[in-house]
């Protein structure tokens, strides 16, 4: 199994936001769900992703696998099935890229797929370039 970059993205971001005060009031929470899944909650107040908005996205990652993400400007939340923790952690990269980008179309890697976040056509593109319909609702 090759090492994952996903935990480092979140860890590096969080450590760069710590200023001696902010971390006492705002933070990152990773918890388990009662349906055998994970939930990530991030308080972005005072960070580079504060006020970032992203409509709720529901991704079908395969049989029994799913990922939901959303950002309302005051919080970032993501949840996933028990086997998709890496995808959940990698999804935070989307908010980071949106916060430093002026382009409307962002792509990010979720495991074996590249996902188009524009939502314009509901297509996902795999690493080999083949397109397929996603599980967006």
Task: Give an account of the 3D structure.
With 137 residues, this protein is α+β, with helices and mostly antiparallel strands. The chain has one domain (6-103). It is built from 3 helices and 9 strands. The chain has helices at residues 6-17, 22-25, 85-99; strands at residues 28-33, 37-42, 53-62, 65-72, 76-81, 107-110, 113-116, 123-126, 131-133. The strands form 2 sheets. It has a 5-stranded antiparallel beta sheet, covered by helices on one side. A 4-stranded antiparallel beta sheet has the order 6-7-8-9. The model is unreliable at 101-137 (pLDDT under 50). It comes from Amycolatopsis camponoti. This is Immunity protein 53. It holds the Pfam family Imm53.
Helices, strands, pairings?
Layout: H1 6-17, H2 22-25, E1 28-33, E2 37-42, E3 53-62, E4 65-72, E5 76-81, H3 85-99, E6 107-110, E7 113-116, E8 123-126, E9 131-133
Helix pairs in contact: 1-3
